[in-house]
Write a structure and sequence with these properties.
There is one protein chain. The protein has 15 helices and 14 strands. The chain is an alpha+beta fold. The protein has 4 domains: about 25-230, Heat Shock Protein 90, CATH 3.30.565; about 245-315, Helicase, Ruva Protein, domain 3; about 330-470, Ribosomal Protein S5, domain 2, CATH 3.30.230.10; about 475-525. β3 (about 140-145) and β4 (about 155-160) form a beta hairpin. α4 (about 45-65) runs antiparallel to α6 and α13 runs parallel beside α14. It is globular, with a radius of gyration of 31 Å.
């Protein structure tokens, strides 16, 4: 008789049993279990991420409405040292009543994901994820007050993300009296850790003020200390324009989707209307290369034909995408922002010409500050930005850090060991502006490694480095001249005494000669 094995004794599930266990997972459920992906992996980072998401939303809203941003950030301790209420209020355009629950209570709801234009937010996750984290850790809903104008009613909502179906659950909804004529205020209560220094709310707001010199931020910390970051520029950045996808950045699946969803009736018209930089002449050339009739119905293009069409798109010479979808900070304002927040002896900034990765336009900007009150015997501080937003975490996995290391600062007069940032009183700023920044994760803390992006960052920093090298050479030359002058000045009295001994001058004559020689040395140096 055959011996029973353990696998025979164990009763397995049938396909029907397994089918009963399957169910749809909502995006909210997924991020509830994987909140580290959104920047809520520890209490310290959770507090910072909550402030960041609310401030970014306020800045985007104000700029799109043509309003110079003014933002109030208050962090209030709530009875326990690990529980805080984060209040962020702006002077923006406000939010329509029917939109408030979905913006704050539904993940992946927003207006920016499908647009190819520069903005801080992209995914429609940030502020609703912050509210979801707050509810998970404290059980409190997100509180929102908003008003679209002085003549309109102020709206008051308390909202929770229903993680089962990723829909907002409205806890409270009413019209209120509100002392502010326009704007939005969000209050999120959460478990967190407040700290000063590196990776803190203080650092984030300081860096935000540096890259956004047109904003005023009023910040009150849990200990009651108030800090005001005043604007140094009274002009809003130009409004970026939305563009259509560029053929060089399209993949096969996206092309097939566009073919099926287009309202164009002809393939040649589809290429012209649904892409940027495709003229009538170029569209006819693409159709000819692909061997597809230009009047063919886009919806009837088969997968094999779509593959040949994609190949033809990539082989046809087209202009780079338009750059009016990007709004760089600008060299002058980068320097003004750095001067406002960092006392240094030297500043340099550069805005590179636009470039392209995967058919998506981007601009790299860089700034360098040296000396002054910047710390001397530490590694250089690198401030990383994407669309004017500071990136404080995950520096080691960011293309900006690698490019800053590979810029080879030794050739510009700084000490640098292999694989590290230079040492000395140096502050570096790198900014990427793009309608779609290639972040490494949903937490938006590091930019992915694209060769085109890395090359532009290195070139921008090297441009600043050349200015720094000239400054350091001048400084060293002046220091050497001063050392020589002081050496000569030390011996002028001895020369006077020697001349007195040789020529028999009296003391008055000796004093006059010493004075004249000192004056000649001084005038010679000034000249």
């Amino acid at each position: 008789m055959a011996k029973k094995t353990s696998s025979d004794a164990r009763k397995g599930l049938t396909a029907a049993d397994m089918a009963l266990q399957q169910r749809e997972i909502s995006i909210s459920e997924f991020f509830t279990k994987n909140r580290h992906l959104l920047g809520f992996d520890n209490p310290k980072r959770a507090l910072l991420t909550t402030v960041k998401e609310a401030v970014d939303n306020s800045l985007d809203a104000c700029e799109e409405a043509g309003i110079l941003p003014q933002i109030w950030v208050d962090i209030e301790e709530r009875g326990r040292e690990d529980r805080f209420a984060v209040h962020v209020r702006d002077n923006g355009p406000g939010i329509l009543r029917e939109q408030i629950p979905r913006i704050f209570g539904k993940l992946l709801y927003g207006s920016k994901f499908h647009r190819l234009k520069m903005s801080r937010g992209q995914q429609g996750i940030g502020i609703s994820a912050a509210g979801m984290y707050g509810h998970l850790t404290t059980g409190k809903p997100v509180t929102i007050r908003s008003r679209t104008g002085p003549e309109q009613d102020a709206q008051y909502f308390q909202v929770i993300v229903n993680t089962k179906d990723n829909e907002p659950r409205i806890v409270r909804d009413r019209t209120i009296e509100w002392e502010f004529g326009q704007g939005t205020e969000v209050v999120i209560e959460l478990e967190g850790t407040f700290q000063r220094g590196k990776w803190s709310v203080d650092e984030y707001l300081e860096q935000t003020a540096t890259a956004n010199p047109h904003v005023t931020i009023h910040y009150t910390a849990p200990d009651g200390k108030r800090t005001d970051f005043e604007r140094v520029c009274d002009e809003l950045p130009p409004e970026p324009k939305e563009i259509k996808p560029h053929p060089y950045g399209i993949e096969l699946g996206i092309l097939i989707k566009m073919l099926h969803e287009t309202s164009s009736r002809k393939l040649q018209t589809f290429l012209q209307s649904d892409f940027c930089r495709v003229s009538r002449r170029a569209s006819l050339e693409i159709c000819e290369r692909a061997g597809i009739y230009e009047n063919a119905r886009p919806k009837r293009v088969a997968q094999k034909e779509a593959e040949t069409l994609l190949k033809a798109l990539r082989e046809t010479k087209l202009m780079n995408p338009p750059m009016d979808c990007i709004c760089p900070i600008g060299e002058e304002l980068i320097e003004a922002g750095m001067r406002k927040e960092h006392e240094a002896a030297f500043y340099s900034s550069v805005t590179r010409s636009p470039a392209v990765y995967r058919g998506i336009p981007f601009v790299i900007e860089a700034g360098v500050a040296y000396g002054g009150e910047i710390k001397e015997d530490t590694s250089a501080k690198l401030m990383r930005y994407a669309n004017r937003v500071p990136l404080l975490y995950s520096g080691g996995g960011c293309v900006m850090t690698r490019a800053a290391i590979e810029a080879n600062w030794r050739q510009y007069g700084l000490d640098q060991s292999n694989g590290n940032l230079p040492t000395g009183p140096v502050l570096m700023l790198v900014h990427i502006a793009s309608p779609w920044v290639p972040f490494t994760s949903e937490s938006k803390e590091a930019v992915a490694f694209y060769p085109e992006i890395e090359k532009e960052i290195i070139l921008a920093l090297q441009d600043c480095g050349r200015h720094l090298r000239r400054y350091l050479k001048r400084r060293r030359r002046k220091a050497e001249e001063k050392r020589k002058r002081e050496y000569i000045e030390k011996y002028i009295p001895h020369i006077g005494e020697a001349l007195q001994d040789i020529l028999g001058f009296d003391d008055g004559e000796r004093t006059r000669i010493i004075t004249d020689l000192t004056e000649v040395l001084k005038n010679g140096h000034d000249g």
